[in-house]
């Protein structure tokens, strides 16, 4: 099952949960006010995806699919490509044009999905 697969993205989502509880995270929630569902596949899109909801209306991140209607936009990535986009190593528009990211839903909502919504990775 997908839930037993450990993804590099899991750590980013954990950081995101903490980030949204900070003042910077609360500002982000006010500014964006959208709900994103992110489907992350270990290797190949559409296979063993793990879903997360990044709710920038309520300021929370949850594992699973969005259950309060439809998310404003849904993104699908492989684990490696999600890590690259969320850490700013790959531009989301370039990822989309190269087929590294699939989008469903509102394009205007999708355009607000930038690496800025993710916490900056701490230096190890």
UniProtKB/TrEMBL annotation:
Pfam families: SCP2. One of its GO terms (cellular component) is cytosol. InterPro entries: SCP2_sterol-bd_dom (IPR003033), SCP2_sterol-bd_dom_sf (IPR036527). Residues 19-114 form the SCP2 domain. It comes from the Eukaryota. PANTHER family: SCP2 STEROL-BINDING DOMAIN-CONTAINING PROTEIN 1, STEROL CARRIER PROTEIN 2 SCP-2 FAMILY PROTEIN. This is Sterol carrier protein 2. It comes from Sesamum angolense.
